[in-house]
Design goal:
The complex is a heterodimer of chains A (about 450) and B (about 475). Chain A has about 450 residues and is of the alpha/beta class. In chain A, about 35% of the residues lie in helices and about 15% in strands. Chain A has a seven-stranded mixed β-sheet, with helices on both faces. Chain A has a four-stranded antiparallel β-sheet with strand order 11-12-15-14. In chain A, strands 1-13 form a two-stranded parallel ribbon. Chain B is α/β, with parallel strands linked by helices and about 475 residues long. In chain B, helix 3 runs antiparallel to helix 11 and helix 11 packs across helix 14. The chains are: A alpha/beta (about 450), B alpha/beta (about 475).
Chain lengths: ~450, ~475
Amino acid sequence: MPFIPHTEDDVREMLASIGVASIDTLFDEIPQALRSGGLTQVPEGLSEMEVTRLMHARAERDGHYSNFIGAGAYEHHIPAAVWQLVSRGEFYSAYTPYQAEASQGTLQLLYEYQTMMASLTGMDVSNASLYDGASGLAEAVLMAVRAHRHSRRILMPKTVHPYYRRTVQAIVSAQNIELVELDYDAETGITTTLPEGDFAALVIPQPNFFGCLEDADTLTDWAHDHGGLAIGLVNPTSLALLKPPGQWGSSGADIATGEGQPLGAPLASGGPYFGFLACKQDFVRQMPGRIIGRTVDLEGKPGFTLTLQAREQHIRRAKATSNICTNQGLLVTAATIYLSLLGPEGLKRVALASHANTQALVAKLTNIPGVTRAFDRPLFHEAVLKLDTPAAGVLHALEAQGILGGFDLMPTYPELGNALLICATETKTEADLQQFADHLARIMGRQQSAPPCPIKPKI
Amino acid sequence: MLIFELSRPGRKSYAQMPATAASSSGIPDMFLRRDKPLLPECSEMDVVRHYTQLSQKNFSIDTQFYPLGSCTMKYNPRACNTLAMLPQFLARHPHAAAPTGQGFLACMFELQEMLKDVTGMAAVSLTPMAGAQGEFAGVAMMRAYHLARGDAARREILVPDAAHGTNPATAVMCGYTVKEIPTNRDGDVDIEALRAAVGPHTAGLMLTNPSTLGVFERNIAEIAKIVHEAGGLLYYDGANLNAILGRVKPGDMGFDVIHMNLHKTFSTPHGGGGPGAGPVGVSERLTPFMPIPIVHEERGTYRWLSERDRPQSIGRLSAHMGNAGVLMRAYIYARMLGREGMHRVAEYATLNANYLMAELQKAGFDIAYAKRRASHEFIVSMKRLKDETGISAMDVAKRLLDKGFHAPTTYFPLLVPECLLIEPTETESKQTLDAFIAALTEIVQEARTNPDLVKGAPYTTPVRRLDDVKAARELDLTWKPAA
């Protein structure tokens, strides 16, 4: 039987010790009517060899693509050491460090992670992670409402990822919190119109969903001048290059959050990723999720432990800051190792190379007749392009050439018309960019060429 | 030694960086960072050595017996990790169109179907990223259901006092007030108290079965009847699904909505505290409210269902589709177990728990619900030992670390004083259980002959007992370089 070590002798001896005749007897407290028949939709078990063959076949079916989609999940090179270390059983198969003395590896790593994230975001403290960027923003919103005390209004620019906005809506909707959507400027793609009235916090995405750089300094100061908090929603790769939330405006944002995936987590169809959350010291007791502190043992030797647990559900139950129980330990392990391998210089180079590749791609693509940039604004590593033909059809034709050409903005931003959000990270070469441009040019029908051939390249 | 203390200015891991990058970006100065973030400057070998050594300071399933009650710390098969990390799966962008991910989507669809069968529910959504988020999704669906029927008076969720802390915390996040229902002396829900508590204000009851006391709730049919007759819904917390996998289906017990913890029952890694995966299953009447996306199959082709397909959905819980890689590991595990293997999980998890309970009782330990069958876990109370020797459950737990065992869950559930909640899981052998019994017996002897030895434990771990009070009072949450 898979993964069950018992021999027939073991079972016999164990049943004798318990004093029952069969394993079935052990279920005799369950009312007879509830004992189910067999499973019908679960197939027969497979050996490791059989399941290997099956999964390779499934993986082959998904093929290989040259990816230019970003939209919240970014393809970066992940050093080989990252997942080799993460896959060590001592990290992979450990659990929440409830027994601190037996979990110093995980605990120290989390403390190192908190240090790195606090510094990257320019904040005082960081928690040990949340599920992902979108739910992390929801937690940041709840935290801001708790910290502010007076207002339950949150100002949410439309330049925040549309799925993040929906996630926040789903998570905070039952708590009488009002989300006020802020429009963006049609020329620059950034938030410029700010409303009247009280609010608990303004969310400031940097870069925003369109890849554009918001005027974060002005927005932060505006929020503070009007009695609200500022929540920075940031891409961690960008923080080696761009001004971190803690340095925005005259006093810095109050809370910083975002998607940690770019730091060593593979795209993997959307997860597992992790959300990061950092804040100023004043708000640490309003933070959700696990927090690690350094202390000493009874011999005075430094060590690490879960701390401020009185905020959490297993102690506070109905009065906890959140219902969150786990963090994303394994992904944080990957991120900590990733950041250690890259260092400040490496991360900055990744940011610069991604920025340069996206700029180069934009230049190539906007050379194609019928393709223009939507917004005149400095960008980080994404850009919105306007097409003179529906993006969905173009993307479909590119797929046939083995290219994932971007994120179609029609369903979420219909006012932009035929618009595409593209991204080229450091993983792309000049040849990759040119290949994309060549195919797009042909598909757009502006170059004399045969129609696209619906055959996937074999790589 | 922290990674920052290994760092030297100017040291680089050249191989890991992009070889060429412009030194400046053309981005206006006002947007740029001026200081250097505090990240380590190390060689690749420094990093590999440091984190390898850190890993060695952990207890884990791969290195120790880990009988942490209610956490189902069973063996994580290696094939699940290797196959979920095939390059095509890792490279797939979450927004890549469905036709480019049919292999992945086939796995997700089949996992949904298997989980429907295992739970006896009408439909499953894989989206929630952990048990607590599954709970949130479940209670949010209950709320959406009542509101869709115009029944806004249901403001209260009932939770047994033995429940996990996530239950009441979740109910509050969903805008409910919480009322606790007491447990009777035998470990079952106090039926009369439940009867008195329900009414037109009851949105539903959240129940774990078997409960956190390690016993099967025998009156479940009666409980379901009481809650349903009052117009409430019944929520199944799947934390302990391992105990009944393939034996009892929550749908057959009358539950309307359930979440599963795939990192427990389906053996995906606990990863030092996540990632989890908390799919939800629902009965027919709750299907319109399920969180999206959900995988849909039509003539052998798979696609995601979105807001357009499910306008009454409670919405999205993540930017994409939850912890896909965890779901892949669960799928592979389920395929390896198959139908027969799944039945065996509950059988052998229950056999191991009852054997351990019987042997510990013979060795003189106080079992909290000794007259009941253990489910996949059970509770030992150290109260008598504490009264006699001053040695607490915490002391015993710490001393177990010296004996090479991870401690059971301590001081939970809150109903039993000085408790150890012990869950051996089906993947442990009789030899391991016997060695654990011997260790616990030895510790009790030590408590009687040399209590200071036990009070001072652990001795063999990288650090001795830590000062938690100092950690909370003098918060040190980030490393700072010497000035």
